[in-house]
Amino acid sequence: MLISAGCSGNLTYGDIIHHMPVTPTQSPETILNTVFGYQEYKPLQREVIQNVLSQRDTLAIMPTGGGKSLCYQIPALLSPGLTVVVSPLIALMKDQVEQLDALGVPALFLNSSLSFDDYQVNMLLVRSGEIKLLYVAPETLLSPRTLNLLESVTLSCLTIDEAHCISEWGHDFRPEYRQIAQVRKRFPQAVCLALTATATDRVRQDIKDTLAFQDDNEFVASFNRENLMIEVLPKTDPGGQTLAFLQRFPDQSGIIYCFSRKQVDDLTAFLSTKGFSVRAYHAGLSDHERKTNQEDFIRDDVQIIVATIAFGMGINKPNVRFVVHYDLPKSIESYYQEIGRAGRDGLPAHCLLLYSYADVAKLRYFIDQKAESERQVAYLHLNALTNYAESSMCRRVPLLAYFGEKYDDEPCGACDNCLKANDEPEDITIAAQKFLSCVKRTGERFAATHIAHVLLGTDNEKVLKYRHQELSTFGIGKEFTRKQWLHIAQQLIQKGLLEQSNDLYRTLRLTPKGSEVLRSREPVLGIVPQAEKTAAARKKAGEMAYDRDLFALLREKRKDLADAAHVPPYVIFSDRTLVEIAAYYPLTPDSLKRINGIGQVKLERYGDILLDLVQGFCRERGLEEKLPRKGGEARPTRQAVGKPRHVIVAEAYNAGQSISDLMQEYGVKRGTIIDHLAAFTQDGNALRQSEDFLSMLDLPGEQQEAALQAFEQLGSKFLKPVFEQLGGAATYDDLKILRLHFLSSRK
Ligand code: ADP
Ligand code: ZN
Fold first, then answer.
1. Which atom of ligand 1 is nearest the CA belonging to 69?
2. Exposed (0-12), middle (13-18) or buried (19+): which is 688, by Cβ within 10 Å?
3. What's the structural domain count of the chain?
4. What pTM did the predictor assign?
5. Same domain, 105 and 172
6. For residue 392, which ligand has an atom nearest its CA?
7. Could you tell me the pLDDT band of residue 422, with boundaries at 50, 70 and 90?
8. Is 589 buried (19+), middle (13-18) or exposed (0-12) by CB count in 10 A?
9. Does residue 698 belong to any structural domain of this protein?
10. Is the pLDDT higher at 176 or at 632?
11. Do 25 and 115 belong to one domain?
12. Residue 623 belongs to what domain range?
């Protein structure tokens, strides 16, 4: 017997019972691990789950991607009866049920999208008592038919998703939501959990009042989304800027938001002619077109959706890797929501806003057409947004301030302004020499990208074709990413050490000055975009190094499995799961179990397929498993809101950790730790034993003295004046150390 055409088409009732992997005595942590395949909770999940399991009505406010679903799914599996989840988004119910099916959890939905027969079958299954989770639309919940059904079973938990819909003060008020309060009274034994990602104080209070919740059962997570890289660019050549941006995300999913339907159509056409897999989405299309375009995007059959703001509400695609605002959004709140659709899976995602004053003027014009009462509010929103876009401080500060949250972990390492702040010139002589020598050894016939590949040791087709894997410079530049090498190349060109051909091929050759640098080891100063380089920043952004080839194979396999099961690829495995497999090469079922997102049922269903693939890949390339020992590698955890990084680092230093300890712990170079310590002393704090610093220097005593005097004279805020006064005798790295000595020995 099939459950329903509305959810999984290929899972039988018998399957559900068979796969139900939970016994009531298990702990929430065991379920987290065995059913969902996760090793640790996301912030506040543990607290919310505990609270619900203690039968306390709970309000949880977490950002998109914060992991709200688990907050009721785990209690549902530990409760004797049924958990009902009220949700206004019909499309999302199907998605949730598909995902639970894939985990072997018996779940169903009831809403107007089901045929009469499917509806009846689903009601019967609920009545039988074997279903743990039932998703319903609010109007379905209120119908006598449903209420009778719920009275015939044990209702353990009533979950209200998108709980802000209860409040008239919210942006999405639904009158039926208010009546849920009445339903609660009919089921006094059921605990109630309300969840939302958007709630101002007023809405929050309204939810609690309406549902008669107690104040201390409220959990509010940080709204900072660490994995989002946030960038605002002046809109100078939007088409070209968008193309350049998209080229960085080959084969990856993303959304581009435009202001008008016409703009959507034009940009879609433009990107199509450039060969991108792209579709439009706006209110001018037929329902059918919109649905198809959305569905193809969700199934990874289409890479990019160009849309007006209408797009995104009803989708739950976790692997959206970028969001571009081609035009200005309406307010900070909508901007936050729209960029929030990127990176729900916790992997790095990139958000770009193209900002121009012409767009601001255009919005002003529209606002002026509005009624007086609306106009004022609209102007407030617009002003907040322009302030945000024009600000040179960390983007997270104004963004989170808007939600009443103070962000003080600057530099955040993942916004354009913080990355810029790091751009103090440093000694890049060694990098320059590696690059120049590689240009020379490859015969001065290639562009920067190829040189970067050789330095990184990438054995792609072109490298193999020219046998560049045999060169001595092959693989000697793994300390930087491809992007950083390209950045370095750009600077070598600007400094006149390299010359780029004017044709399509952009090949590089050494200039006489470049040859001189290679021979004489003359120092080269330059900027390496720092925050993206450091392992700590990558960790912070959820990024990890992984095997791109294996990832591509896994992705292909996932697509086949998903198509065969008629579900979106992310239902089979998240990107995070594939990334971890491609990083650790698990070769046994035990190892596979330790990968994020692989629980018992997924292991049973797909374990062999995955192991075959990974084993074959490793055999062919002579690779071994890389999974860290169990219980080893303590992952550095970070608090959502806490002390700034430089204070944490400096306090650890004062507590006795050496600079090299800290370099290792945070995966950064010495200069970065020195910077943190300097910031700490600049706050007026003391550091232990300043002599340590001078011993790091490889600089004659007189020069040290001269530099310290220069700091005395010129101040220590900026290094450049001191650098210039010494005529380059000390490098910037030397000066950073000397400045630290200067600051910490000052009385
Ligand atoms: P929200 O509803 O708050 O937007 P979801 O419940 O959809 O968030 O969760 C977002 C993503 O994070 C999903 O892909 C989910 O599987 C994943 N996730 C949830 N909890 C955890 C966890 N503890 N560890 C790892 N991934 C998790
Ligand atoms: Zn920042």
1. 6
2. exposed
3. 5
4. 0.69
5. yes
6. 2
7. low
8. middle
9. yes
10. 176
11. yes
12. 548-638
